[in-house]
């Protein structure tokens, strides 16, 4: 082996060592940044949790709170004594379930139709739908349509229907359907399946990541539904959870509990009640998310590749 070849091999080894060290430094830096970002995301929620289980004097104090120095569950007791809290949970669950079923059904039907290249005036329909992302009627025409023309005042449908179809969800789902192999549909048609059978038995089982992703967005949106309920619902028995939480925080907590002497013995203030309401409103969604997380990234990426 010549001297020149030996020198070349030694240079490659040295270069490989430097590349390995550089790669290690790069990976370590990324891990450090991700840890900082995770702390940044998690600490505010932890701070709210600590405040919700702290006594009034500790909750009103400023500064970081890593652990409550004086434990107190009066805020949660106060929330559970609230007469309308469980009614709000029930109404929110009704809105979430009904809204999810209607939204997913309409989005699937619309997206699957727009994904067909042989659909007449397909480009015109797509353009009209996308145009609504930039041009909207506004709040007052929408209110008159929902409340007066459609007569959905004090109805769950007033909260569900105005936002049951999202253009962004429709476009992402359409792109996902366009990425599926057309040979599967052609083979199903040859075997005697009609369009609905192809959609239900072939396309939907292959679209579980996308459906799970859209479902997560729809569930979170309906769970946090607030403004439509504030506009169209005046019957207190149909208030959703977010409206109930708002009333608890903005009004006197003693008036909201209807619990008499039991409420007067609790030590709560706006800080602890607000923190407890945030925990009660967000905990169900946090419990649902881990079951859909494995589909989330795959559904978003695949659904956004093809236009």
Structure report:
It is built from 16 helices and no strands. The protein is an all-alpha fold and 307 residues long. It folds into 2 domains: 50 residues; 229 residues, MetI-like (MetI-like fold).
The CATH class of the largest domain is Mainly Alpha
Structural class: mainly alpha
Q: Termini distance?
A: 56 Å
The SSE string, one letter per element, is HHHHHHHHHHHHHHHH
CATH superfamily of the largest domain: MetI-like
Radius of gyration (CA) equals 27 Å
CATH topology of the largest domain: MetI-like fold
Which ranges are low-confidence, i.e. pLDDT below 50, for 5 or more consecutive residues?
257-265, 303-307
Which strand-content bin applies to the residues? under 5%
Give the overall form: globular
Query: Roughly what percent helix?
Result: over 70%
* Count of alpha/pi helices: 16
What is the CATH-assigned architecture of the largest domain? Orthogonal Bundle
Largest sheet: none
pLDDT averaged over residues: 78
| Overall tally of domains | 2
Find the count of extended strands (DSSP E, 2+ residues). 0
Short description:
By secondary structure, this protein is an all-alpha fold. The chain contains 16 helices and no strands.
